[in-house]
Amino acid sequence: MKIGLFQFAPVRGRPDTNAATLESALRSADCDLLVAPELATSGYLYLDRAELASVSESVPDGPTSARLLRACRETGRSIVFGLVERDGEKIYNSAALLTPTGCSALYRKAHLFDTETLVFDRAGASNDLAVAAGAKIGLMICFDWRFPEVARLLALRGAELLAHPSNLVLPYCQDAMVTRALENRVFAVTANRFGTETVQGTTITFTGRSQIVSPRGERLVAMGVDEEGVRIATIDPAEARDKRGTGRNDLFADRRVDLWAGLLTPPERPR
Question: ∠ CA(32), CA(5), CA(157), 5° rounding?
């Protein structure tokens, strides 16, 4: 199975331009599945909900989804990409998994980061797991990396590859995703963007460094801070089904869930 990632700098406020860029990358990439950044159709920084709504679209009948679905059918490839999803009056930071047969998964970001909390609606449970290109793909978005339960639950449900569209601004996520791959013995594809955006005096700089990581924690692909393009790795999803750490240890069977009741108890806050 050939897995690709696409690192680029989406043009803020130009969904048509970004959709054309995504389609071009998908059609030219020699891979079975391509993973693109978070909010790849819109750009990232929005401080006004009305402006955010102007770049939103529904899935799967919105213009970007329709365009990319056509490309998936014509190429036999699949894509994961981030977008501003509109559902009635709600607006979500979402990631769609499109395959030659349609929209297989649509995940709404569970953990909103910083200014996202001002303009996006908070999502409930959503469809974050599906089979594509012969592998079970689990979806997570950017800041979800900071919560290890996200990757663990996907892996427990059978995910062999974590597709992780991102707009990262903190410097240590890429290293943390190596740990997520190791602790769950799964492949992880973090497709980040690069460049900067400035809105109303607020400037954000993105960290690039997109990567594909193996269940053994190896970086199969590692891009630069401001590098643009598609990078591809050939993987065997079966490698992620073996959870043995040693001949006597299994990462999932050895979990001491009998000791973890406190995970569901709200922590005490300092007074």
Answer: 70
Cβ–Cβ < 8 Å for 95, 141: yes
Mind listing the pLDDT tens digit for each residue in 99-116? 999 999 999 999 999 999
* Single-letter residue type at 6: F
Known active-site residue 183 = no
Kindly list the distances between the CA atom of residue 161 and the CA atoms of 3, 48, 59, 209, in Å, as whole numbers in the listed order: 10, 34, 23, 19
Choose the catalytic residue: 23, 72, 85, 109: 109
Q: Give the tens place of pLDDT for each residue, 32-77.
A: 999 999 999 999 999 999 999 999 999 999 999 999 999 999 999 9
> Does pLDDT of 85 surpass 80?
yes
230: tokens are 């598609």
**Is 109 annotated in the active site?**
yes
Amino acid at 105: A
Residue 89 annotated among the catalytic residues of the structure:
no
The catalytically annotated residue of 38, 57, 116, 160 is 38
Annotated catalytic residue, options 23, 142, 160, 197: 142
SS3 130: strand
> Who contacts 123 (Cβ-Cβ below 8 Å, separation ≥6)?
92, 108, 109, 110
Residue 203 has pLDDT above 90, yes or no: yes
90 backbone dihedrals φ, ψ, rounded to 5°? -90, 145
Identify the band that residue 271 occupies on the pLDDT scale cut at 50, 70 and 90: low
Q: How far apart are CA 12 and CA 209, in angstroms?
A: 20
